């Protein structure tokens, strides 16, 4: 009885605290993720007031949070949208991987953490935060901008890459041999291909089988199917997160919209629990030693993300101001970086503190970069343009201001669903 009472008190305090922190973050205009992580650090091992009774429950809730994050991510896209983005945006995806995964891998090797940790830290620095970026685009009123589909296209490529990366990382962390890891990767690729094929050819039949006019029945069927598939995927060493993502892709139309509406509050709750759980398992005393590497890595990968966005927007024919906005918007890291680090801490515990510090830095810097990268770049360009005049050269006539072609009203061809 005493244990149950302590569990209820601790769990109630956690949820209430998350609600207060979320409201505070909303008023300030930032993502609540850093506050959730700080709360976990404060009440975890080595923190101010460690929680004991609710630790196992929070651990289970964190697993559900990851599953719901990936499920709702999959619900945002139809199979045809994913295939189209893959065909048109794959060069940008390759550049994204090369510029942003390599710094993380190199950092892990320089720190002496080994090749498996290098693969994990590469994922931490590679993947942008879809949740933070979606919120930033809405807050800044850029959903109808010409560069927004480019941003979403890069994020979609990253999501598809996760379906291959996560099973590979899981196999490496499990210590499987080359043959075992290759088999896991082949199973994952085959599963992804099969799901995309079935979703393209028979998506309406699947959605019709799951569909229900009763919200309660729809919630139970979709949630039960997702958890079941996630468990089977975990058993096959493919990753529960990938299984949940594939379920989301397979559903489309009104079923996907209804399920998204019903599950979004649950996603927000359990995702918050996940970030708290990650903080609970990170010793605050382990963060100061990795703070400098995390800061250096954050600065480097913020610049490489800006370069990625510039390249992707340039390929799409977006003008200069939109290219800078694209790059700045992609800077934020968040939920996926923490998911990857959470998988890897069993092999290299130091990844947890480094990833926590890294995400804290970039989840705060990300919205600022989205807002100010383009104005700073424009001012720097003007200053550089004036440099010859200060050296005695005859100043050139002022160029006509560039028309803000990127801020075009949203049209059916430009709009796309953002990810929560």
UniProtKB/TrEMBL annotation:
Residues 389-420 are annotated as: Disordered. Keywords: Membrane, Transmembrane, Transmembrane helix, Transport. The chain crosses the membrane at residues 6-26, 33-51, 57-78, 90-111, 117-138, 150-168, 174-197, 217-234, 240-257, 269-287, 293-312, 324-345, 351-370. It is found in: Membrane. Signal peptide: none annotated. Residues 389-412 have a biased composition (Low complexity). It is a multi-pass membrane protein. This is Cation:proton antiporter.
């Amino acid at each position: 009885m005493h244990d149950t009472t302590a569990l209820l008190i601790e769990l109630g305090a956690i949820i209430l605290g998350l609600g207060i922190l979320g409201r505070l973050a909303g008023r300030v205009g930032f993502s609540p993720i850093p506050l959730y992580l700080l709360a976990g650090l404060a009440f975890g091992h080595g923190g101010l007031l460690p929680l004991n009774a609710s630790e196992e429950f929070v651990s289970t809730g964190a697993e559900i949070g990851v599953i719901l994050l990936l499920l709702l991510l999959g619900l945002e896209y139809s199979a045809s949208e994913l295939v189209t983005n893959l065909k048109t945006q794959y060069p940008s995806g390759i550049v994204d991987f090369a510029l942003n995964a390599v710094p993380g891998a190199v950092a892990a090797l320089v720190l002496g953490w080994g090749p498996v940790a290098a693969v994990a830290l590469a994922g931490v620095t590679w993947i942008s935060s879809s949740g933070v970026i979606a919120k930033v685009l809405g807050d800044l009123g850029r959903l109808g901008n010409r560069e927004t589909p480019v941003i979403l296209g890069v994020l979609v490529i990253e999501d598809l890459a996760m379906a291959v990366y996560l099973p590979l990382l899981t196999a490496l962390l499990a210590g499987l041999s080359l043959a075992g890891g290759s088999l896991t990767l082949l199973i994952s690729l085959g599963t992804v291909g099969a799901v995309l094929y079935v979703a393209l050819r028979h998506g309406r039949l699947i959605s019709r089988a799951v569909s229900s006019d009763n919200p309660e029945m729809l919630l139970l069927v979709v949630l039960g199917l997702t958890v079941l598939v996630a468990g089977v995927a975990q058993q096959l060493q493919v990753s529960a997160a990938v299984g949940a993502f594939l379920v989301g892709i397979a559903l489309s139309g009104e079923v996907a919209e209804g399920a998204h509406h019903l599950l979004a509050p649950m996603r927000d709750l359990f995702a918050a629990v996940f970030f708290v759980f990650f903080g609970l398992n990170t010793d605050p005393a382990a963060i100061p030693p990795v703070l400098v590497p995390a800061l250096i890595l954050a600065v480097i990968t913020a610049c490489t993300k800006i370069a990625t966005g510039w390249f992707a927007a340039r390929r799409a024919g977006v003008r200069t101001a939109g290219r800078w906005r694209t790059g700045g918007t992609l800077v934020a890291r968040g939920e996926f970086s923490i998911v990857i680090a959470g998988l890897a801490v069993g092999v290299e515990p130091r990844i947890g503190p480094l990833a926590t510090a890294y995400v804290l830095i970039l989840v705060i810097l990300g919205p600022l970069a989205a807002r100010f990268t383009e104005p700073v770049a424009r001012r720097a360009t003007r200053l550089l343009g004036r440099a010859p005049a200060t050296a005695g050269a005859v100043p050139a006539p002022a160029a006509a201001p560039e028309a803000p072609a990127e801020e075009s009203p949203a049209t059916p061809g430009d709009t796309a669903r953002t990810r929560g």
